[in-house]
Amino acid sequence: MRTCSLLLLVAFIALAESFHGRHHMRDKRELLVRAKRRWVLSTIEIQEEDPGPFPKEISKMFNDQTGDEEHNYQITGVGVTEEPQGVFKIDATTGTVYALKSIDRETRSSYHIKFDVLSTRTGQPIDEQLAFNIDVKDINDNAPTFFPPIMDVKVNENLEEGGTIVNLKAEDNDQMNTDNSKFTFSLVSQIPNEPKIELKQMDKVGFLTLKGCFDYDKVKKYDVIVQAKDHGEPSQSSQAVITLNIIDTNNHAPTFRQKKYQGEVLEMITKNDILRIAVDDKDTPNTAGWRAKYIFMKGNEERNYQIDTDPVTNEGILSVIKGKDFEKRHIVYLLVEVENEEPLTLCKDNKLVGASEHPPRDIVNITMKVINVNDAPVYEKDTFHVYLKEEEPPGKEFFTPTIKDLDSNVSNIRHVLLEDQGKWMTIDAKTGTITSAKMMDRESEFVDENNVYKIVIGAIDDGEPPATGSCTVLIYLKDVNDNKPMLATNGAILCGNKDKKVMVTAMDDDAPPFGGPFAFSLVDDDKTVTQRWKLDPSYGNQAGLISRRPLPYDNYSVPLLIQDQQGEITSETMAVMVCDCGEGVVCKPKDPVTSSLGKAGIGLFFLGLLLFLLLLFVLACQCKAKEMVMVQDEGNQTLIKYNQEGGGSADQAEPTLLLTPTRMVAVNNGHKTNTIKTFEISNDVVKDTDFYNSQVVDMINVTSLSSQLQRNTFTNSGSARINVTSLSSQPQRNTFTSSGPARSNTWNVNRTNTGQGRSSMYQRSVSMCSNQHIADHIDRRLYMMYGNLLDQTGYPPKEYAYEGLGSKSPSLDKLSLSDQGENMIFLDDLGPKFKTLAGICQHTIQEKNIKL
Question: Does domain 378-478 fall into CATH 2.60.40.60?
Fold first, then answer.
C-alpha cells in the first residue's frame, strides 16, 4: 500500500513539473518575440567599377515597428547628403537602396550611411536610427607603378661585383595585403648582355646589382628594362626603363714616352721648368684617372729638385728649387716614377683584381749636369747680432764681417749697404766695417717692437760675372731716458650728474726704468685749481682727478706736473669738460630748437595779432579826412641853400612887373560871397602852374601871358569857371586843392619847381575862412612868386644841382583858423601840442640867452 501511494505521489509531481515546464517555454517564446530585431535589411556590399546598368538595387530595408501606420524610409550620410553626393538613394516607400553610378575603391573604400523610418502623418521618426557602412569590394584594376618609370643613372667603371647599381621602387593602389596589391619584379631585357646585371627584390623595393666588371673602353651605356607584375586576377603589370651611363675610371696605368732624359743646370741657382717629361694614359683626359703624379725614387735626397704636373699636357715639369754646388757634385742621377691621382683598378677574368696583382709603375732615369759658375762671396753667418745704446754720437765702428769666396780673392771683394732704412750707417767698401753716421733713436719708426734695427750688407766679387753675397745685421738698441712723460689724451669728460672723478693716463716712449709709473701733481701757482681739484691716486700710470665740489657745467683747464722714475718732469694741461651725461658716459646733446608753441606762445601770438589789428584800426581812424583850419598867411617850410646864387646885372634898367586886372569873379563858399580879380602878367623867367581844387563846384581859371602856354586851374564846388594862363621860361607847377565843407574850405597846395638839373617840391594847406579872402590869397601868392623878381628881371636864370626834397617836418599851415576874420583871440589857446612846442622853444631861448 505504501508503495502504491509513493508511486502515485511521484506521478503527480512529474505531471506538475511537466505542466510548469510547458508554461515556462511559452512565456520564453513570448519574450523572444518581443525582443526580435526591429530592422530587417540585406547585407550591403558593392563591387568597384560595377558596369551597371544604373540605378542598380543593392539592398532593401524593412522595419517591423511601423505596424499599420503609413511611413517613409530615408537615408543620409556619405554619398547621399555628404560629399561625394549622388552615389546612393532609397525608395521612400519600399525601402529599396540603389547605387546611382560606378564607384572607384581607390577614391573611397567605405561609405557610412544612416537609415530612418518616418511617419507620413507627423514626419517624426517611428523607430531609432540605424547606421552602418557600405563596403566597396576591390577588383584588380591597378597595375604596379614605378617611381620614376624612366631613369638615367651614372655608374663608375670600377664598381665592385655585387655592388648596387640602382634602387627601384614601385606602388600598387589596390587593396593592401591582397593579391591585387602584391607584385614581383623581373628583368625583361639588358642591352648589351655582358657583364650580367641581376635583379633582387625586398618587399616593394628592387635592386640592380653587377655580376662581373664594366669596361668603359668596350661599352659606355647599358639599357635595362624591368617589369613589376601583381598577383591579382587578371594580372596587371608595368615596366621601367633604366639607362646606365658608365663613367671612366683609372684602369690604365700611365707610361713614359722615353725611358731616359738629360738636362743641365748652373750651380747654385734656382730655376723653374728646366726639363719636361711626357707620359701617355689611355683613360679619359682631364679626369683623376688620367692626371699623372710624379714621384722621386732616388737622387733628390737634398731636395734640390721639384717636379710638378702640367694640368693641360699632363707632362712632368722639373725645376731646381735649391742651388747645387758644383764643387760638391757636378752630375746628379734622378729616378722618377709615375702614377695617377686615382688608384688603379684592373679587371681580369670578368673580376676586379687587388693591388697586389697590379703591374709595377713605370720609371724614367734623368741625368742632370751641374755647370760650374762664379761662386758668390759667403759671409761667416747669415745673420749677425750687435748690441748698442741709443742716442750715442755718430762715428762709432761697431761691426766688421768675416767673409770667404772659393772662386775669387777676398781682398778684391767690394762691400755695400743693401738695406738701411734710417740712413744711419756707412760701410767701408774695402773692409766691410760698419760705422754709425747718425744718432740712432730706439723710438724711431725704423725700429721694430723688439728694439731691433735691421740692416743688410752685400759683398760683390770680381769674378765673371760678378757674384754677390749678403747677410743681415740686427742691431739691438738699449734704451736711455731721452723722452719726457706726456698725457695719453689731453681731454676728458666728467659726468657731473653722477661722477666727480676722471682718470688721467700718462705715457712715456722710454722703456722701464725710464718710463712709468709716474708721479702726478697739480700746479701750485693757481690756487683756483687746488680749490677745485685734487689727485687721488697721484702715483702710477693713471691718476684720479677729483673735483672737490660740484662744478658748473663748463670746460676747465687743469695744469699738471708728471714725473717719471728718473725724475724727468713735464708740464701738461688737462682739458676737462663737465657736463650732464644722462644715463650714458658722454655729454648729452643740447636740446634742438623747436618750432612748436606751447599754450603761453599761442596766447602771446593771438595777443600780438589783436594789438596789430587795434593798431590798424587806430591808423585808419587817424587817416580819415579832417577839416584843417590853417593860417591865411602861410610861408614856405623849406629853405634851400644853394652853393652859388650868382650876381645881377647892374647896368640894366629895373624891369617892372605889370599886373593888369581884367575882370572880377564872384566866389561863394556857402557862407560868404567874394570876388577875385584876374590879372595879366608880363613875361617872366618863371612859369608857375597852380591847381586849386575845392569841394565846391565853382571852377576858377586864371590866365596870364608867358613865353610858353600852361594852364592853371582853380577848382571849387561852384559853377563859375575862370581860366588863368601864365607864361614863363622855367617850368614850375603849383597845385592848390580845396577840401572840406563850404563853411570852412581848405586849399591844399602842391608845388613842384623844376629847372635844368634840379627839382623841388613842397606841399601846404590853406584854410579859406571866407570867400572874400580868395582874392587876397591869390595876391599874396602872386607877390610871393613874382614880387621878388620885379627888380631882377635882367638876371639870367641860374641852374642849380638838385638837392632833394625839403624838410618833412609838419608845417604850421596845418593849424586851423576860424572864420572870425582878423580876430586873433584864437592865439590865446592853440592847444596842448602848441603849448608843448612853445615850452620847448622858451626853454631853448633861456638856455642860449637870446633876446627877442
Answer: yes
